[in-house]
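The following block was generated as part of the benchmark described in Methods. Ligand: zinc ion.
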Amino acid sequence: MVMYQIESVTKRKNKKKIAIIIIIAILFVMLSIFSAIQLANYLHNKENIAQNENQTEGTTLAEGDKVSQSEEQKDKENNNAEEQTEKQNIGSLTKEQINAINHIYSSDDKRAFLTFDDGPSYSVTTKIIDILKEENIKATFFVLGTMVKSNPEVLKREYEEGHYIANHGYSHVYKKIYKNENAPLEEYKKTNKLIQDALGNPNYQSNVFRFPGGSIGGYYDDIKKKAKKVFDQNNIAYLDWNALTNDADGADTREEIMENLKNTCGNQSSVVILMHDAPNKDLTAETLPDVISYLKKQGYTFCSLYDIL
Ligand SMILES: [Zn+2]
């Protein structure tokens, strides 16, 4: 009986031990599994981070590629635009527009184009545009490259107030601008670029040229004839005048200015009037109100080249 009891106590103790061992084993297995899961998660996350980093780098590279591609494209577009500008520089007028300039002297209605050459000057041009503003008249300025360089802000004001900026070449020195048949176009292009810079508008085209001294006659007549063909080939118009005040040569008083205006306008329906806004042409600015008043009384409507182009 005692033996049995001892045996039974020993068995119970063994059972307890086994149970404890099993529990420890289970806990160990669970801990191992938990640790394994943790480790797996850690490794997985690490891998993801590494992948993300790669992706980010990849994305950055891809975007970098895109940037450089789009920059390349922009460069190409810019080059195309420059090429187009280059082409436009050499004439952006249509045949119809050139025709309109070539037929400017004939019209059914009475119209007067006030044109001013050799500016812009600070002293005279500003007075002229003040008067034009007051009268609400738009005019046309045939500007010189050298003067645009000196007075870019005056040119900008002319443009902003709605006047047409046309081109009178760069130097106004006959032996330079008429040294060969291509020189007038070269001076035109040089001046056009200066106009663009002054206006801050790289697309501005002056499109209409006035030959210093006129397109016909004089010592350089042969060169002018050939130069006109060069302008024709490049779709650039050129324009002289059919009325003048003689303010550049000969007219020293208001009366003489008015006399010349009346005589040269005559009974013409469409008049392109040559005047000057060089720095010494104070008399032109002083007489302008009389010129405007006379033309109004004669029934003329004032136009700029914008009205026919
Ligand atoms: Zn001139």
